[in-house]
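Practice problem: predict the structure.
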Amino acid sequence: MTPEENLQRLGIELPNVPMPIANFVPWQRQGNFLYLAGQVCEWNGEVVYKGKVGSEVSLDDGVKAARICGLNLIAALRQALGGSINSVKNCVRLGGFVNSDPEFPKVPLVINGASDLMHDVFGPEKGSHVRTAVGVAVLPQCASAEVDGIFVIE
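Answer:
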């Protein structure tokens, strides 16, 4: 199945691409590489999960926050590619940031919300990627998670 067919099969609705709140663009293409700016857990203009994972936000909600970040990445990817994500050759890298309690040790599990989404949409070969998962003191708009990505396009 194509990535677009997978979105339909999984019943995944994509949000509107968030408008940058600072001086940057949501994506930049260089040759066959598409670089996606970090996306927080915003759904159509509203940050859904706010606060520190591990103390104010549960692990499960942190995973959901990272999934929303991933949905925003796919929405930006679709915009950059003119309305279809079928030309994605590979998700190369995800960078994950978690607004976490300093004692919270499960940051990588939170970012699995975005990683698992990429596997579901692009399949195990095209969706496999390298990744960074970092706990941070604060994120824009007090969001619980932020994820950026790099994709190779055919």
